[in-house]
Amino acid sequence: MPNSKSLFLGVLTGGLIGASVSLLTTPSSGSDMRLRVKEQSERLREITQELKENGIDLKDQLTQTSKEGAELLKDLSQDIKTSVESWKSTVEPHQENLQEHLRQIEEGIKELEEKMKEQNANQT
Questions:
Q1: What is d(CA 45, CA 39) in angstroms, rounded to the nearest whole number?
Q2: Which has fewest Cβ within 10 Å: 67, 82, 109, 124?
Q3: Does the keyword Electron transport apply (predicted)?
Q4: φ and ψ of 29, to 5 deg
Q5: CA dihedral of 50, 55, 57, 62, whole degrees rounded to 10
């Protein structure tokens, strides 16, 4: 670990010294350098402002989308509820008829079973 820490500090120190030397030995004058730094800082402010505005727009869009989604879900759930109630009212009158038919079918099956038992008993 001590070797990697020393290496890191050496690279960091060397980088700082190199950057300082580059700035001091640059062929542009001090006024040119200040002008470039000023332009870069203005550009950075503009980019930051654009990001801020884009973030606000995105937040507004997400808010609007979530409101619309909530309304759509509410409408959809109401439509589903209405459809289920309509289906129930359509099926309910026929439900009693279906149950009656099932009872008749069960009685018919029981009668057939009894007749088959009687026939089997008569044949033996």
A1: 10
A2: 124
A3: no
A4: -80, 170
A5: 160
CA distance 17 to 4: 20
Q: Between vectors from CA 81 to CA 77 and to CA 87, what angle results, nearest 5°?
A: 145
Residue 28: DSSP 8-state: S
Report which DSSP code applies to 47.
Answer: H
This prediction has a pTM of 0.42
Tallying the residues shown for the chain, one arrives at: 124
In whole angstroms, what is the distance from residue 36 CA to residue 55 CA? 28
Distance CA 49, CA 55 (A): 10
- Is residue 104 within 8 Å of 112, Cβ to Cβ? no
